Amino acid sequence: MKKIILLLFTIISYQIALAQCTPDPLYADSAWGIWPDEQTNFVSGDIGVAYQQIVNFKVPLDAGDIDTSYSGLPVDSVVLNSVQNLPPGLIYSCNVPSCTWYGDSAGCASIDGTPTTNGSFQITLNVTGWVTLGIIPLPSVFTYDAYVINIGPVGIDSYHLNSNTLKLDQAIPNPANDECKIQFVTGKNMDIEFRLTNLLGEIVEVRQINASRGVNDILLNTSEYTNGVYLYSIKNGDNHLTKRLIINH
After folding, report:
1. Rounded to the nearest 10 degrees, how much is the dihedral formed by the CA atoms of 150, 155, 157, 161?
2. Strands (DSSP E) along the chain, which ranges?
3. Strand order in the sheet with 90-94
4. Which residue of 60, 112, 219, 249 is 20 to 30 Å from 103, comparing CA positions?
5. All domains in the chain, ordered by first residue
6. pLDDT in tens, the chain (249 residues)
7. CA–CA distance, 103 with 77 (Å, rounded to integer)
8. Alpha carbon 110 to chain centroid distance?
9. How is residue 37 annotated by DSSP?
10. What is the CA radius of gyration of the chain?
11. CB-based contact 108:57 (threshold 8 Å)
């Protein structure tokens, strides 16, 4: 019985700890915004090590601050519906149980837990904003996907997405033995050609990839290739990026 009570106390204490984020007064006088911004990005973590990221934000009073097509319409409230693609082992909580904040108010959310899986995880925030037209409340649903949480030895740190973004990162591991993962980032959905060549310029492997906006993974089975130095590249017609890969069985 004592063990059960202790376990329940631990669970309740943990849940209370998750709900203890307090909006930072530093941002209280801002018109609106979210901190950290996407260029600063979320902090990185490691498997088995406790993780926490506090996100502060200020809800605007006028919806036109976010989207000019809604200029002049007062913001009634903003609701955080879900946070998708969190690294396994992490959950989120808000400073208010409903994850609902009214116009011109400050709020915060906390991402906590102990990660269990390495990788780069592009986070998607699903939000509903409510504006008032006369006496009629109108919802507007949108997603925000500019953040990445890196767990463990991954190549991508922080980046700012725009329509021209194209970034290629180091293969992990490198040197590679039986397999490796190559990540790249695109600012929009696009067709990407991936090539692996040897130092003589001979094509070892080529793929056509329908890339999605954000982080994309290429899993490469290197066990069938001979030891040596190779070049891997991506191109989208306008840009061509290349890095070196060493294969050593």
Report:
1. -100
2. 33-35, 51-58, 75-84, 90-94, 100-102, 106-113, 119-133, 136-151, 166-168, 179-186, 190-198, 203-211, 214-221, 228-235, 240-247
3. 33-35, 51-58, 106-113, 90-94
4. 112
5. 2-151 (2.60.40.10), 166-247 (2.60.40.2550)
6. 333 333 333 333 334 344 469 999 888 888 888 898 777 788 889 999 999 999 999 999 888 887 777 788 888 999 999 999 999 999 999 999 899 999 999 999 999 999 999 887 888 899 998 988 878 888 988 888 878 888 887 655 555 566 778 888 888 888 988 889 898 888 888 999 999 999 888 999 999 999 988 788 899 999 989 999 999 999 998 789 999 999 988
7. 5
8. 14
9. -
10. 22
11. yes
Identity at 32, one-letter amino acid code: W
For tokens 């208010």, the residue is 96
Residue 135 in tokens: 């006496």
